[in-house]
Write a structure and sequence with these properties.
315 residues, alpha/beta, Rossmann fold, 7-stranded parallel sheet, 5-stranded parallel sheet, 12 strands, elongated
Amino acid sequence: MVKKKVLVFHSQYADLYRELLENGVPEAALFVCRNPEEVEKWSPDVEIAFVPRNFPQGLFKKMPRLKWVQVMAAGVENFIENAGQFKNIPVCRIVGTFGKYMVEYVLAYILYLNQDITRVLKAQGEKRWDPFLVEFIHKKTIGIMGLGTIGSFVAEKAKGMGLRVITWDMVHREIPVVDHQYKADQMKEFLGEADYVLLTLPATPQTTNMIDQSVFKAMRKTAYLINICRGAVVDEPALVEALKGKEIAGAILDVVKEEPLPPQSELWDCPNLILSPHLSGPSLPEDMVEVFKENFRRYVHKEPLLGQIHFDRGF
């Protein structure tokens, strides 16, 4: 069999990707690149591109033989915005990989809040004995907005930890572990039930700034917002006002609109806000290559590809 020419781009882990792919996909002729200049050198001949989500979109125009793109990420906004150049080229995102990491992030912070670890550390630093009654997750409700692959995975694990699980989505899905699913027109009722509102929505024109002032007003004053999906879905000025006005108890953001977050952002100093630098769902090379291996097999055998983007839906 003639080897398929595959362009692999990663500025940091190029050597690791080469090693994993040489061992895992020997049928591929690899062109591993670290920078755009190397990409341009090999672009005219490649049939397949295996690239991160921030890959320079203009470089695809220099790949006249391109037939398939595999993105090393779940979020593919840059590709959606440039849909025109992929008219007859399937573009696939990573699905089914990140849930196991993201659920650890979510449960870690829920436990952190319930155990009031901030208070414990403060008392320790002050050498002060401060016994108190902690809160327990089996008495709490997590509300998951967006019941895709990641949201469904979190729902299952959260239920196993004892949380009551409710969900809201624009499309109804049957998930046995969910205690109650709210319909698209029942967002206000959904928000009023949740102690933790978890965002696992895709970034689309319909979800941009969806989490706005009306959402914060509908949430419980004791509730927390947790965002592990995309910064675009949250109206950040509205969130700042809600936190300053104590409309909600707090927020945990792993994603923001502008990354890295600039020093002048109000979010840094916002009360009752925890910021982390987009680390809940890492794109580990070994995971990305496993998905690529399966899709490469499907591509060669002309089978449906996993995670193919529906450009009309925005994800």
